[in-house]
TrEMBL record:
Its main location: membrane. The chain crosses the membrane at residues 61-85, 146-168, 220-236, 248-272, 321-343, 363-382, 434-454, 461-480, 508-533. PANTHER family: CHLORIDE CHANNEL PROTEIN, H(+)_CL(-) EXCHANGE TRANSPORTER 4. Residues 593-657, 690-748 form the CBS domain. It comes from Polyodon spathula (North American paddlefish). It is found in: Endosome membrane; Membrane. Keywords: CBS domain, Chloride, Endosome, Ion transport, Membrane, Transmembrane, Transmembrane helix, Transport. It holds the Pfam family CBS. It is a multi-pass membrane protein. SMART domains: CBS. This is Chloride channel protein.
């Protein structure tokens, strides 16, 4: 009986074996070797016939096809989001009578009655007060406009939070901390699903239009990764291999930043520097291609109507001077301090939200913050408009045609200079009024952003951080400009700033300040500088941007190594081993492994003496994710490791498909199963689900090495042996607990619940 008709699973693969449960970590090594096996099979088959050769070619090209599809969809969604946000932001202030779906700017483009001086005014565009009471000026008109502004803001925010709460709870936040965790090998089912994609796209428009202090850039990375996940499902190469799928998601993140900022190269570098865990050279090329297609698609849609990929494109006509490095570095220091304040304040508030009643009323919290934001924002023209428009105005250089209050300088009547090179002039009353309003806007933005990020709506962080930096930078820039004008005989200005020359560009200071604040919050450096110069087209200002970015990182790192994304990962307790963390303690594997001295012995399976009933009891009584397999309980010599999920599936499958497998059947993990007597029940051979090469270390391996192995190989667990005998096991969670303990943190508080 026995071995003749044994169910050998090598011949017939078991469905779902090798897949993972929700909130588990993938085994990178296993996924990698499965992909290598798949490649080998395809290469061997392709020699058999032309059809197999074509199939092999299609398989090789599938990666590029996925990138093309991601780029097209991400670019299209970004364009639609940009257009919808423009229209809905303007809807809070008025409506276009000729076509209600036009934004203010589009409405006045189509008008024949617009003059250059009053380019914002045209008869087709009417404020709500003009439409309802026929007046645009006066107290009643102001109150009515104020009331409708707040009402629209509350309506948009309520719709956004309700949709997220009912249909896709994962659509809230920026999504970057979770994407970093997913790319490190963690599984969060549904986080990149179709519903999340749909709801995130719709609610992102609503959230940004409500006027809250948040941006759409972070959520666009999440949207692009949802597109990546969607298209991965079309090809078995990616849908059946979690490690390959993560290569696609890394490239999708690059496409997301590419369309968020119109910065394809910055997007690739952002994916490499900030979000990706495993980034082989092949992924670099594919990211580049996905970012290119996404940027090209967005450019075809042309959402801003200026033939540019971004809203902030600027052209400065003056070079910068060495003496200006000092204020640039000061802005870097400000960015680092703001980054520290923001990270600490926001994490403290989010922790409070998690641990108090506040977390139980997400809708009320969003409504309250929106009401406060709208009520305070409306009276100040700089906070009333959308944050992107505010940054755009702050970046702008004052030309002869600018009608902004920030450009209200006193002109010299006998000035005969070319239009694009206007000399430094004394500030007029408009500039001083604007400075006061900007100072108030700065305080407001600093405070409100801390409470806004992390609410249950899609909320990005890039734009609010840049706004804080741009406001601070513009104020500093105007200060330096006026100082250079009134004191051009001072030694610092003497060499480069002659009277009547255009020396200082305040818009450049705004740009440098924006980079510094964004760097302080996220701790990006290389990708940040590239994003900033792609965003503004200011290629010759790389050195000031680099100086500010590096300074802000140094200052922020002095107060704490974690950026906002790492802090949120730790707050949520995701099992994320950060490559940037250093482990310098002198502990050994034996100090960390389970079981400890006081704990019961390690639960193991034997290679040829365990019954099906023993295995099922073991699975029922324990919650371990896998079991080591040994020769016998006495010798404890290690054979391999078997995953809990694979065991369950294999036994369930055998009971359904094979006669004679009962509770008393013996489970064999060996190659040659001995002949069993005719009277004994059918035995079960499960050698094929056994991992014969589990990663092992000796008990005297330094933990520094173990942590490195876990990081670089993406292990789930590692077995500890001495002279071939099994002593214990170290899991990824044990490593994280130990690192927290060594950093004097509560080891249980960092675990994902």
């Amino acid at each position: 009986n026995g071995s003749g008709n044994l169910m050998d699973f090598l011949d017939e693969p078991i469905p779902d074996v090798g897949t993972y449960e929700d909130f588990h970590t993938i085994d990178w090594l296993r996924e990698k070797s499965r992909d290598t096996d798949r490649h080998r099979k395809i290469a061997n088959k392709s020699k058999e016939s032309i059809w197999e050769f074509i199939k092999g070619l299609l398989d090789a090209w599938s990666g590029w096809v996925v990138m093309l599809l991601i780029g097209l969809l991400a670019g299209t969604l970004a364009g639609v989001i940009d257009l919808a946000v423009d229209w809905m932001t303007d809807l809070k202030e008025g409506v276009c009578l000729s076509a209600f779906w036009y934004s203010h700017e589009q409405c006045c483009w189509t008008s024949n009655e617009t003059t250059f001086d009053d380019r914002d005014k045209c008869p087709q565009w009417q404020k709500w007060s003009e439409l309802m009471v026929g007046r645009s000026e006066g107290a009643s008109a102001y109150v009515l406009n104020y009331f409708l502004y707040v009402t629209w803001a509350l309506t948009f925010a309520f719709l956004a939070v309700s949709l997220v709460r009912v249909f896709a709870p994962y659509a809230c936040g920026s999504g970057i901390p979770e994407i970093k965790t997913i790319l490190s090998g963690f599984i969060i089912r549904g986080y990149l699903g179709k519903w999340t994609l749909l709801i995130k796209t719709v609610t992102l428009v609503l959230a940004v239009s409500s006027g809250l202090s948040l941006g759409k850039e972070g959520p666009l990375v999440h949207v692009a990764c949802c597109c990546g996940n969607l298209f991965s499902g079309l090809f078995s190469k990616y849908s059946k291999n979690e490690a390959k799928r993560r290569e696609v998601l890394s490239a999708a993140a690059a496409a997301g930043v590419s369309v968020a900022f119109g910065a394809p190269i910055g997007g690739v570098l952002f994916s490499l520097e900030e979000v990706s865990y495993y980034f082989p050279l092949k992924t670099l090329w594919r990211s580049f291609f996905a970012a290119l297609v996404a940027a090209f698609t967005l450019r075809s849609i042309n959402p801003f109507g200026n033939s540019r990929l971004v809203l902030f494109y600027v052209e400065y006509h003056t070079p910068w001077y060495m003496a200006e490095l000092f204020p640039f570095i000061l802005l870097g220091v400000f960015g680092g301090l703001w980054g520290t304040l923001f990270v600490r304040g926001n994490i403290a508030w989010c922790h409070r939200r998690k641990t108090t009643l506040l977390g139980k009323y997400p809708v009320l919290e969003v409504i309250a913050v929106t009401a406060i934001t709208a009520i305070i924002a409306f009276p100040n023209p700089y906070t009333r408009r959308s944050t992107s428009e505010l940054i755009s105005e702050l970046f702008n250089d004052c030309g002869a045609l600018e009608s902004s209050q920030l450009c209200d300088y006193i002109n010299d009547s006998n000035m005969t200079r070319p239009i694009d090179d206007i000399p430094d002039r004394p500030a007029g009353p408009g500039v001083y009024a604007a400075l006061w309003q900007l100072a108030l806007a700065l305080i407001f933005k600093i405070v409100i952003t801390i409470f806004t990020f992390g609410m249950k709506i899609p909320s990005g962080l890039f734009i609010p951080s840049m706004a804080v930096g741009a406001i601070a930078g513009r104020i500093v820039g105007i200060g330096v400009e006026q100082m250079a004008y009134h004191h051009h005989d001072w030694i610092i200005f003497k060499n480069w700033c002659r009277p009547g020359a255009d020396c200082v560009t305040p818009g450049l200071y705004a740009m440098v300040g924006a980079a510094a604040c964004l760097g302080g919050v996220t701790r990006m450096t290389v990708s940040l500088v590239v994003i900033m110069f792609e965003l503004t087209g200011g290629l010759e200002y790389i050195v000031p941007l680099m100086a500010a970015a590096v300074t802000s990182k140094w200052v922020a790192d002095a107060f704490g190594k974690e950026g906002i994304y790492e802090s949120h990962i730790h707050l949520n307790g995701y099992p994320f081993l950060d490559v940037k963390d250093e482990f310098t303690h002198r502990t050994l594997a034996t100090d960390v492994m389970r079981p400890r001295r006081s704990e019961p012995p390690l639960v193991v399976l034997t290679q040829d003496s365990t019954t099906v009933e023993d295995v099922e009891t073991l699975i029922k009584d324990t919650d371990y994710n896998g079991f080591p397999v040994v020769v016998s309980k006495e010798s404890e010599r290690l054979i391999g490791f078997v995953q809990r999920r694979d065991l369950l599936l294999a036994i369930k499958n055998a009971r359904q498909k094979q006669d004679g497998v009962v509770s008393s059947s013996v489970v064999y993990f060996i190659e040659d199963v001995p002949q069993s007597p005719a009277s004994s029940p059918q035995s079960l051979k499960l050698r094929c689900i056994l991992n014969l090469c589990p990663f092992t270390v000796t008990d005297h391996t330094p933990m520094e090495t173990v942590v490195d192995i876990f990081r670089k190989l993406g292990l789930r667990q590692c077995l500890v042996t001495r002279s071939g005998r099994l002593l214990g096991i170290i899991t990824k969670k044990d490593v994280l607990r130990h690192m927290a303990q060594m950093a004097n943190q509560d080891p249980e508080s960092i675990m994902f619940n």
